[in-house]
């Protein structure tokens, strides 16, 4: 459950320490049930097709956050589904999902100013301020750090 843990340690540490705890985390292989012919890969039945990662966070014995990540060859449909219980209840399905590569690139790019202004030495995401969309020009931030 790296995604939930990473979020818990960098962006939402206070949520899990003040409001609840991660109570379950599993990562299991998904095995091909049939032969899966593909464009660049053919998987024989019984071979590893991907993973299913499950994480749950609870508060006062009640589940408040769930991560159910399924990434495997031959998966039916491709979407991200988010449900937020509240008023109003939000039940959102994003057809074709949110591209992970774009999200990863966004995290890297939006981390640049925090890395530039960090203290020297070995640091991790846990040591940096939370990453959010940049609302300034990167060239200005870089020239400030270079003394320009």
Summarize this, please?
The protein is of the alpha+beta class and 148 residues long. The strands form two sheets. Strands 1-2-3 form a three-stranded antiparallel sheet. Strands 4-5 form a two-stranded antiparallel sheet.
Main features:
148 residues, alpha+beta, 2 domains, 4 helices, disordered N terminus
Describe it:
The protein folds into 2 domains: 1-97, no CATH class; 99-148, no CATH class. Helices cover 28% and strands 31% of the residues. The chain is built from 4 helices and 5 strands, in the order ααβββββαα. Helix 1 crosses helix 2. The model is unreliable at 1-17 (pLDDT under 50).
- Strands, total number: 5
- How many domains make up the 3D coordinates? 2
**Strand order of the biggest β-sheet:** 1-2-3
Quaternary status:
single chain
Q: What portion of residues belong to β-strands?
A: 25-35%
The whole-angstrom Rg is 20 Å
Low-confidence stretches: 1-17
Average residue pLDDT? 76
Distance between the termini: 42 Å
Shape: extended
Binned, the helix content reads 25-40%
The helix count comes to 4
- Tell me about the largest β-sheet: 3 strands, antiparallel
Note the run of SSEs as H and E. Answer: HHEEEEEHH
Secondary-structure content class: alpha+beta
